[in-house]
Fold this protein.
Amino acid sequence: MQVEQLTCNIGAELKGINLADAVHDADLFAEIRTQLLKHRVLFLRDQDISRADHVAFARRFGELEPHPVVGSHPDHPGLVQIYKDPNSPIDRYENAWHTDATWREAPPMGAVLRCVECPPVGGDTMWANMALAYERLPAEVKANIEGLRALHSIEASFGAAMPIEKRLALKALYPDAEHPVVRTHPETGEKVLFVNGFTTHFSNYHTLERVRVGQDFTQGAGALLNYLINQASIPEYQVRWRWKPNSIAIWDNRSTQHYAVMDYPACHRKMERAGVVGGKTF
């Protein structure tokens, strides 16, 4: 296996391997996992593997989870089909910086995404290193957000365009999840900035230390949250991947955000994602 680093801070391309082999080769899978922790997102070309092998490889990381709004392949529960066609509406969630499913109490550990069909040009995906984003925050900001927690909502994102009855039913199944603004990566011990497009507000900002008058809360908290979410947009923290059929991306959802660029004309774009169940944040 050859490892080609793509940027200084995130992303590497793996060459000379077939992911189907890693289903049964423990040493190969262990090396892939090591590289994932190091580079946060891994890319491979020319992976003409079956859906069964896609699912089997992802399950080496852990059990898979379906998505309550986006459907899974009928023969492979947990293999989410992110399919677009010329009549698909504009996507309001992929083309925003986000960490997958932080509206869950236990957000996914990571994901394995395979391109089935894509535009001839456009439709790239970008990832950002949120451990580096935290590391490079000004010291006074780090001090201000220490101990802060925030709420993440499926109702305010996927549910927003639903009729009220469906929206409230979705929220009943997935109540807003509370996570630390700075989480600790369970394997590396790194501190990670953990707010994104699913984050609605801080849950414990309104304290005597931060709030003198109401304006400090109503404007100060929102401005701080927007500032933190926007850290993912800093180019030095990013890598950008151009898709081709049978290309694959594997990412650590605990330390990254991603953004699907919607710059292509109306056409078919078919992606299949196996999301891996994660643990509670701390």
Summary: The first helix runs from residue 19 to 22. Residues 150 and 201 are 6 Å apart (CA to CA). DSSP finds eight helices and 16 strands in the chain.
